[in-house]
């Protein structure tokens, strides 16, 4: 951390900054230049609050050099982390496409969906039993009953399951149903108590979706909350961010993929369905994500999309999923990977 | 709800949309124009999912005419709602400035803060015992112990307290300490299980802060989650939204104030401290908020700002709070209100 | 400018940065700390390109301490600049409300508008003869003929005129018609050749509207283009920026007002009409702007708003303008100013 | 266009809307439903201003069904348009990578750059003689002299040239130097007089970069300004938009590619260099762009990037360009295209 003092800062003010930093347990190095003094803070400054220092009299700017995240940082673990999901590797050479319906509706729908996922060559299945809906008056998910339907349908095809946890009080139920990957949704990216709980109570892999308008740095820090609790099996999922554009739902931040791959050793996947919000955009966004270096996709697929109970206009069907897998495979090979 | 069919839509497709709408319990009115057919859905369409209709074959556009929110809508309650907080009215002619420190630190700090709040003529006090921090390695709040310190300091001055609830499992403790106003923070605006719980388990007034990049419509729907549970004592708090601008922390959306006052009968307040993120911006933003029609402010005040444990650079001190109250009073009077 | 070298930077790399900076005419001060070296660049670094330095091997971060703008900076001129517009002061104690129609339509409309502006107590009149329209197929303004109608109507009431210049080739015509204030629209904020021309060819005051998504820093730099040419009579006009919110047209950045008043000595005004995009929002936004410290307003007023040829839903009428002036006056007095 | 009247609209108000629409030359179809009246406007409504209709008393919502753009719309021309640039096709099966330095510096630099572009297998060269710089105090480009250097260096390798036109008064010089593709920069996307001039005075292909925060619809309308003048040789170039994210310069809107390919028959290319703002991000963004369906790329390449006079940290070198071409070719083949 570099603290740049104002050109009018007094010796007392400089002294006070040094004392405050030392009280926080870091060493300092004061460099008095011709026009201004620069104080370097040396050591572990992750616990030093930049705002607290900036508020001290005489301080002009505070520049953080070290990253505020530790466990999730690639500095702490230069190799890619490959997460093992019931034997399926995520984050390695092989790309994983996680497919399935937005929401669990009926046992029949889930069985048909599971067959479609399997037939397309996907190895993991997604589906929502608890749904975060903008309106309290629309379908809120099938709940625990839905979890059961999902478990049965996926087991029949030997597919590990990915589903969203919204309420911290439901975690035990998730563990009871042996949910294979817990998804934390975009609206809960900074629900810190939920993050802490999935960090300390389980080793189940967690997909952490990016908040609606979260910076990459905040997202890495949210993951750090999970990691700090002891669970390092974290998968980042880019799903588009809020923007001024109205031609589609969210703006897929494809640049976040190479940035994250540089900053963290953890896997990065992309949800092209929630990003664009339209089935017709899913192929282009999926190809772009893989081309940019993503380790996988989280795709909404429904046996009969126009009968879906929610987000009906963004699901693709089984046949489209197969076509998508073929092209994703082609692009993966160009980049030295496989599906 | 108006469903505009594509100019190439077939009679079968039109029929199917009509059937789907009727299955959802609404009446329809089909108008066949020269170039295209328009279907009107009549009745209560709050439970009709716009996306589900848009996904049907032949549909070009779906336009929602009725608002998707009900209880919080001014249509359902034309008069302003005045919320009673231990005898202090919020939402009426009198403007309320809720002041206090970002976080509860020590009993001494809280006593000094309470005296400052009272001396400035404020009638309600704020303070955080549980703090949502971007980093897991920085100060996370004093917790239950902090709640106790806050209660005691505020009681000594006869001030009702406002404090943030982050974890649904902590609600009973909040009720035990008789927290007078529960604050739901920006990161939890769409933590739907938390909203449902403060809606059905208590009648304690709730301040619902706007999400980092939430639209006004999503914000009203989040409030509707609380209201649908039975608690109608909801206060909206604008606190700035995410933007591209880097000269300050968040962009205060002053336009949201008149828009909300038109859409809802519930009180609207503004947090100028988290908006600008700098103490020097607090007066100008406070005056702007009141001038635009806000019913109150939520201001960070600390007895000795540069010693604050968090957000040190955005707190004003007691003397500045007094000056702020004087100007807020002047502007209020121009608009026919008082402080 | 502070250049922070990477902890792995070699002596050669440090040497090269120093040489490059010195070649650009600035002095350097090298401070070798325990973990990293920091190079301070001393002197006038406005012409040093931050990106060029950041691209050099071994550089980790470049921090600009000095502002990149000079003439428009308050550092160069601590007192407020009061611009004289045919005897009307802008930027001083007295607040100016510039009112008039979006576009010049007919001589009758302009005469009625001028009478309304005068009757409300405003001292300056606005009106567009050349209109920047999103579509090439909608009304593009009355052109030179409109300029003439405007000049005549305003002269009859003794009002100086404000009108938008879009095409650099039209500047001579503007000077011929003695336009009193040249407005540069939001879409041309970074039309650098236009800025250079109004900077070097005239001393006519220029209202520089903020670009649709321009940062405050870019805006100040755009003004610096005008100032560098010799014309220092520049007025900043905040008019709302692009955002994700859909309940109104643009998001008025009220925080930009106190930020600009701190950074520059030049006047700052606000256009509440283009910001909200709706007549009903104009009063609240106007009051907020004045309360936040703006030196004036640029308001769309039309004798019969619902007959306006463009932006019909954002114009207020004469009666509403009078009411607005009364409240603006009240707020101004609370802040020690007048209208 | 569908005009939805308020449920409280009177017969007179409905009549007035009908009259106003008919006065604008469109037919109307009034459908009186149970709860509200809907008016359909039939015929060419491109010249009908939505805002003017919305401002009429009794109108609740105005929904535009037809697109406001005509010549550039795929509706008007279902096949892809392939633009011929001195024999090089853009918009067809073959992908074009346009490479070259940010700015023209010296004859030697341009010759080395041209050789590098040619050696990598690119068929078109870019370079800036006139530079839009944020600061008036940094390098503004070599001007006409630079244009000459560029022309000579490119001619020696047989490469058509792409360069930016900022000032409408410079168009004749561009035509004199036979610039092969005129680039309109992001800051001039809505400089309507410049657009009109390149529309009516020349048939030279125009690359129209997207404005900093322009919606796709505004961008299409800007192109329509050029097309309406008679020049239909327009190429859209996505270059990233303004966002809240600070980890890179602009957010590449990869979703804009499939959306544009659906809306328009004209070619779409991507500038990965200005999007990310860092050389290390160029490959990932280039692959993503091609995978999403772009017809080409506009890449900054410099013989010795760290000596570049501007944007030094975003240029790749000749060797990196060759590697990029190889991967782009691989991805193109997966999608049935070539480089």
Largest interface: A-B, 52 and 52 residues
CATH topology of the largest domain in chain A: TIM Barrel
Strand residues, percent of chain A: 15-25%
How many E-type strands of chain A?
14
Give the name of the CATH architecture of the largest domain in chain A.
Answer: Alpha-Beta Barrel
Mean pLDDT of chain A: 94
Strand order of the largest sheet of chain A: 7-8-9-10-11-12-13-14
**Count of the domains of chain A:** 2
Oligomeric grouping of the chains: homotetramer
Largest sheet of chain A: 8 strands, parallel, barrel
Radius of gyration of chain A over all CA atoms, rounded: 23 Å
Structure write-up:
The structure is a homotetramer of 339-residue chains. By secondary structure, the first copy, chain A, is an alpha/beta fold. Chain A has helices at 11-23, 50-54, 107-119, 143-157, 171-176, 192-200, 216-229, 256-263, 272-276, 282-291, 318-334, and strands at residues 2-5, 27-32, 37-42, 59-63, 83-85, 88-90, 96-100, 124-126, 161-164, 181-184, 206-209, 234-238, 268-270, 296-300. Chain A is 34% helix and 18% strand. In chain A, the strands form three sheets. Chain A has an eight-stranded parallel β-barrel with strand order 7-8-9-10-11-12-13-14, surrounded by five helices. In chain A, strands 2-3-1-4 form a four-stranded antiparallel β-sheet. The longest helix of chain A is centred in the C-terminal third of the chain and has 17 residues, at 318-334. Chains A and B meet through helix 2, helix 6 and helix 7 of A and helix 2, helix 6 and helix 7 of B.
Briefly, what is this?
By secondary structure, chain A is of the alpha/beta class. Chain A is 34% helix and 18% strand. The radius of gyration of chain A is 23 Å and the shape is elongated.
């Amino acid at each position: 951390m570099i603290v740049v003092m104002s050109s009018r800062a007094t010796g007392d003010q400089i002294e006070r900054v040094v004392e405050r930093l030392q009280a926080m347990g870091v060493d300092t190095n004061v460099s008095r230049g011709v026009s201004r003094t620069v104080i370097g803070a040396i050591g572990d400054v992750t616990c030093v609050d930049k705002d607290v220092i900036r508020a001290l009299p005489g301080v002009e700017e505070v520049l953080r050099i070290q990253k505020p995240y530790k466990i999730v940082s690639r500095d702490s673990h230069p190799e890619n982390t490959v997460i093992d999901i019931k034997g399926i590797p995520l984050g390695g050479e092989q790309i994983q496409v996680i497919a399935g319906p937005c929401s669990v509706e009926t046992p029949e729908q889930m069985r048909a969906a599971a067959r479609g996922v399997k037939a397309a060559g996907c190895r993991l299945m997604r589906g929502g039993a608890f749904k975060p809906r903008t309106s309290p008056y629309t379908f809120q998910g099938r709940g625990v009953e839905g979890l059961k339907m999902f478990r049965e349908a996926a087991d029949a095809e030997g597919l590990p399951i990915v589903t969203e946890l919204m309420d911290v009080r439901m975690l035990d139920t998730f563990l009871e149903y042996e949910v294979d990957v817990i998804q934390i949704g975009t609206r809960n990216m900074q629900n810190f108590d939920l993050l802490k709980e999935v960090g300390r109570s389980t080793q189940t892999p967690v997909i952490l979706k990016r908040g609606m308008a979260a910076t990459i740095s905040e997202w890495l820090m949210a993951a750090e909350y999970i990691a700090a609790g002891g669970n390092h099996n974290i998968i980042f999922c880019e799903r588009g961010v809020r923007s001024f554009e109205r031609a589609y739902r969210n703006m897929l931040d494809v640049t976040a993929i190479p940035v994250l791959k540089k900053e963290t050793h953890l896997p990065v996947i992309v949800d092209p369905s929630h990003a664009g919000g339209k089935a017709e955009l899913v192929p282009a966004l999926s190809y772009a994500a893989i081309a940019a270096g993503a380790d996988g996709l989280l795709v909404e697929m429904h046996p009969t999309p126009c009968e879906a109970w929610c987000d009906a206009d963004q699901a693709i069907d089984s046949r489209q999923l197969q076509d998508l897998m073929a092209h994703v495979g082609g692009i993966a090979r160009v980049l030295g990977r496989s599906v």
